[in-house]
Design brief:
about 35% strand; 6 strands; 2 helices; about 100 residues
Length: about 100
């Protein structure tokens, strides 16, 4: 779900909009097709869920919001985000911390 990119890392996400709270909900799929499942409190209207995902990922990885970019899946539950300015090892470490909290 995390892949190294020239500007940082890409993260494959499976969004679940309309949840009670925004939180990591586990992993969707397995192997190279695995995605980080994130429950999103915002509804999937007018880009609200995407904006909430960007804010959540920025907080999760300790990045400014403008360092998180939606690369693919604007209107889909399956999305790919670019996290700028973070290496794969650091991203995996921060993700592990968050999954332990959830």
């Amino acid at each position: 779900m995390l892949r190294a990119a020239s500007a940082g890392v890409t993260l494959a996400v499976r969004a679940q909009p309309g949840a009670k709270k925004t939180a990591i909900a586990g992993v969707y799929g397995e192997g190279p097709a695995a995605q980080l499942k994130i429950a999103v409190q915002a509804p999937p209207l007018e880009g609200r869920a995407n904006a909430a995902l960007i804010a959540f990922l920025a907080e999760t990885f300790g990045l400014p919001k403008n360092a998180v970019e939606l690369m693919a899946g604007e209107s889909s539950r399956s999305k790919v985000f670019l996290l700028r300015g973070i290496g794969r090892e650091e991203a995996e470490r921060k993700l592990a911390q968050w999954t332990q909290k959830s």
